[in-house]
Design a protein that fits this description.
Length: 505
């Protein structure tokens, strides 16, 4: 490898050598979805990026605990502190239990992540399953003087936090005075707050709120639910500790969600910035505009796979989608177009064809190896090392993919002229092919996705069978029958035609 791993930290605004808190252990947390509807393609970028990150950390022999949560309560409409729960609103409209909505979309999301090649996280905590931890965290923050109760709800006290020498706004690089100036005219429904910057840690549940738990807050016993920002702080702290290595999410979560997470962790027992490294992937756009459910310009993951969206002219496979997302650096925006997806499909298939030729790279019998292979060995080793350089430079998958194509070009040259393998030592060739295979499959997570459908190929085979039978080429007929039987398929000849069935032997 050319260099150690460096990552860009949003908190410090610079790249730095990645040094785990407790090597070889690494704690990673990614903000997961709010499961009130089907995820769109933009929601897939973070999981794909962090799947590559955790794969690569494991390749570097770190012991990774990867946590990706499910938000199934507390995320209110418009990301606000007032109004209906996003999941509750859908449940009310459908006249079902909120957890039916959450469970259905959670299952669909997880199936889509698996299809996109994302390995399951080590832990997938749900907000509704960690109410006790969230209440305990609120109580700690209140005891430290950074939160107050108002009509059964509890709010984080941003002015008190800053007066104590903390810095609300340091992650997103926002100035509190400017935030205040922009929020004074928007206090509708926020009479309970002392400051418009304060945010809900716990909300008293009114009569329309479907999801609620017994609340210890307020003068009279009541029921409530956790604030959206609180959930990730409580769950990451439970599974990764008061301070851990890497926290990630989309750029749109930097403020207020991640900013509030840091404030909560700083105001709690054992104050920390929650994570040492904060990583944010950029947005996916359509025609230059941010993809958003609120704007109505999104493509769901199902639509991408089926092609059933007016922006698309055809369907795209999961691996094509994964390659499309990885061919840009995670901190750069990605614009979805048919042309871009088609090009991604070609690039993906080129990498897959490279995997197919690796085992065929053999020096022809009778060809003698060169006495001195040092120059060619050095060239091939550099091409292989360049593939790691991109990943080590802030997980630059775009650069790594470009380097893999450079390496593949060299390997294709050897495949076209096998006698030139005499100029390479077997050891270096093995290193180069291992690098290609490891990075494509194990780190980038790209798997072979055959384009041909089994039933189409079977139909074509039966057509050849019918032609052979009509020509009375019984040797060919028997050969096709035997080949299909080896695959567990039997040919059924009848007066009405030719069909097939699974062998029952």
């Amino acid at each position: 490898m050319t260099q150690p791993l460096s990552l860009y930290n949003t908190l410090t605004r610079q790249k730095a050598l990645f040094e785990p808190l407790n090597a070889p252990f690494v704690g990673v947390y990614l903000c997961g979805p709010t499961v009130y509807s089907e995820a769109h393609v933009g929601n897939a970028r973070g999981p794909v990026v962090f799947d590559v990150l955790t794969r690569y950390l494991r390749h570097l022999e770190y012991k990774v605990r990867y946590v990706r949560n499910i938000t199934d309560v507390g995320h209110l409409v418009d990301d606000a502190d007032e109004g209906e729960d996003k999941i509750g609103r859908i449940a009310r409209a459908r006249q079902v239990e909120p957890m039916e909505v959450a469970e259905g979309y959670t299952n669909l999301y997880q199936a889509h992540m698996l299809a996109l090649g994302c390995l399951p996280p080590d832990i997938t905590p749900r907000a509704s399953g960690h109410i006790i931890e969230q209440i305990e965290m609120v109580q700690q923050i209140m005891a430290n003087g950074f939160a107050y109760e108002s009509n059964g709800s509890v709010y984080f006290d941003v002015p008190a936090y800053n007066a104590a020498g903390r810095a609300y706004g340091k992650l997103s690089n926002r100035v509190v005075e400017e935030l205040l100036a922009g929020s004074r005219d928007n206090l509708t429904g926020q009479d309970e707050k002392r400051s418009p910057l304060d945010f809900a840690l716990w909300k008293r549940a009114d009569e329309r709120h479907l999801m609620r738990w017994p609340s210890p807050f307020g003068e009279a016993p009541g029921e409530g639910f956790p604030g959206w920002h609180l959930e990730c702080s409580a769950m990451s702290r439970k599974y990764l500790g008061a301070e851990f290595d890497i926290h990630g999410g989309g750029l749109d979560l930097m403020f207020p969600h991640h900013e509030c997470e840091i404030a909560q962790s700083q105001a709690c027992e054992h104050p920390t910035n929650e994570a040492r490294v904060w990583m944010h992937n950029n947005m996916i756009t359509i025609n230059g505009q941010k993809m958003s459910k609120a704007l109505g310009n999104f493509i769901t993951i199902s639509q991408l796979f089926s092609g059933e969206n007016e922006v698309l002219t055809q369907s795209y496979s999961p691996m094509t989608a994964r390659f499309f997302l990885l061919q840009a650096h995670y901190r750069s925006p990605v614009d979805i177009t048919d042309e871009g997806l088609l090009a991604a499909g070609k690039g993906y298939r080129k990498l897959m064809n490279g995997l197919r030729l690796l085992d065929k790279l053999q020096l022809p019998e009778g060809t003698e190896a060169a006495a001195d292979t040092s120059a060619t060995d050095a060239e091939l080793r550099k091409l292989a090392a360049d593939c790691f350089a991109g990943l080590n430079d802030d997980l630059n998958t775009a650069r790594t993919i470009a380097s893999l194509f450079n390496l593949l070009r060299k390997l294709n040259g050897y495949a076209a002229k096998p006698d030139t393998l005499a100029q390479v030592s077997p050891e270096v060739l093995a290193e180069a092919t291992a690098t290609y295979r490891t990075l494509v499959q194990d780190v980038l997570g790209l798997r072979d996705e055959p384009r041909a459908r089994a039933e189409d190929l079977l139909g074509l085979t039966l057509h050849f069978y019918q032609e052979a039978k009509a020509a009375k080429d019984y040797g060919k007929v028997d050969e096709i029958r035997a080949a299909l039987k080896q695959q567990g398929i039997v040919v059924k000849d009848s007066k009405t035609g030719i069909d097939w069935a699974y062998s029952e032997e």
